[in-house]
Amino acid sequence: MLNYIWGGLIVLSLVFALTSDINDFARDTYRNDAPLPVTVTFEDQYSPTARRQPLRLEISDSDLIAHYGDSSMTGSTWEGMLLQTSAGREIRFAEGVSLPEPLATICNETGQGDCRGALQGTPTGPEWRSAVTFAPVRWVKMNAIAAAALSFAETAVTLALGLIGGLGLWMGLLKIAEASGMLHALVRVTQPLIRPLFPQVPKDHPALGMIVLNLSANMLGMGNAATPLGIKAMQELQTLNETEDTATDPMVMLLTMNTASVQIMPPVTLVAIMGLQINQLFFSILITTGLSLVVGITAVKLLGRLKRYREATP
Amino acid sequence: MNILQVFLDYASALVLPAILVGFPLYGMIRKVRVYEVFVEGAKEGFNVAVMIIPYVIAILFAIGMFRASGAMDFLTDLLRPVVGLIGIPAEVIPMGIVRPLTGSGSVGIILDMINQFGEDSIFVKMAATMFGSTETTFYVIAVYFGAVNIRKTRHAVPAGLIADTFAMLAAVYVVLLLFG
Known about the structure:
The complex is a heterodimer.
Chain A: H1 2-27, E1 36-42, E2 52-59, H2 61-68, E3 76-85, E4 88-93, H3 103-110, E5 116-119, E6 127-134, H4 140-162, H5 164-179, H6 182-194, H7 206-219, H8 223-238, H9 249-259, H10 268-274, H11 278-303, H12 307-311
Antiparallel strand pairs in A: 1-2, 1-6, 2-3, 3-4, 4-5, 5-6
Chain B: H1 3-29, H2 34-68, H3 71-84, H4 93-98, H5 103-117, H6 122-133, H7 137-146, H8 156-179
C-alpha cells in the first residue's frame, strides 16, 4: 500500500502543479510583459546622471484592479530606488516591503533577493507618471515542487543524523539494562499485560521489555526517548523475523500503537504552542487518543485476518 | 490542574533522570562493566541513523512535493461538502490532511489558525486535539521500519490511517461534546 501512496503523492503533485500553472497561463494571472501604470515621486530633485536615486512609487486602487482584474486589491505607496543604466531605468523596491498578491509572487519568483521592474519613459519632473513592467512569471508551482523535493531530501538527512546522539545514548543504556538482568525482570513483570497484544513473541523474550519501555516513554510524552526505544524494540522483533524485508504481525502492532500514539501527557510542541490552553485540552486529547488507540489495535487484528495480509505473513 | 496531571507532570520530569542514573547504578551493583557495555551499545546509534536515511528521504521528499504543489487547497475544497455532511467544520480539514504527513506542517497550521480564529476558538481546540492525539504516521513508519530495513509494510499503513482518520473525527466530536 505504501508503494501506491508514495507514487500517488508524487504523481498528484505533478498533476496539481501543472493544473495550477496552466490555469495561471490561461488567465495570465501575472499579466506577463504588460505595463502597470504607476506614479513615481522623487525624494530629491530628479537627476538624469545619478545612477541611483531614492523614490516613492504609488499605485492607485483603480490601476491595480484594472490591471489584475481583482476587485479586492488596494493600492499603496512603496519606498524604492531608481536605477539608471545605459540599458534603461529600473525601480528596485526597498527590502522587506509587503506587496499585495500577485505582486508578491512575481517578486519572489523573479527577484534574486530583490524585487525590481523596468520603468517606461523618461522622468518629466518631481512627479512622474510612468508604468512598470516586471520580468515574466511562469511555472510557479512546477518550480516550487522541484525546489521542495530537494529541500525536503536535505531535511530528511538532517533529521536522521540528528537522531544519532539520542540513539547512541539509549542503545548504550539499554545494553547495560540487558547485561544487568534488569530488562529480563521488566519482561517477567509486564508480559502478562503486554503479551496478549503480541502473541507471536515468545515468552520472556527481551523484545517485550523494549516494547514496554517504548510505550511508557510515549505515554509520558517523552518523544526523544520513545524513538530510540521503539527502534530497539523493532530490532529485537527483527531477530524473530524469518524474512529480511517483510513486517511481522508484532511489528505492525507496535508500529500502529506508535502512530496512533499512546500519550497521556500532551506532546511538548503542543504545550509550547497552546500555553495555558493545554489544561483545557488535556481530557479531549486523552479521550481521543485512547479511542483511536483502541481503533488502531482492532484494525491491526482485523486487517491481519484478511487473506492478502495473512498470506504475506513471514 | 487535576491530580492526574500533577502526577504525570512529576513522573515525566523524574523518570528520565531516574533512568539515566538508575540503569548504570543497577549495572554496577550487578558487577556489569558498565562503561564497556555502554560504549558497545552506543556504537549502534550511528549505524541506525544512517540506515534510516534512505527511508526518510523517500517519504519526506514525496510529502514536500505534495505540499508545495498546492494539493492541500484542492483537497480541502474537495472534502468540504463530504465532511460537512457528518458535521465536520471545513476549517479543520487542512489539519486532518496534514497531520499524518508532516509534524512541522501541522504546527504551522495550528499557528495560522490561532492567528485567524484566536486561541479560544473551538476550531483551534479541535485542531490541537487532533495534533495531540495522533502522530506523523508516515515519518514514524519510515524511521521504525527503516531502522530494520523493512520495506514490505503489510497492513501497517492501512491500520495507521484508519486510526488517524478515526482520531480526526473523534477529535471534532469530543471537543464539541466538552466545549460545544
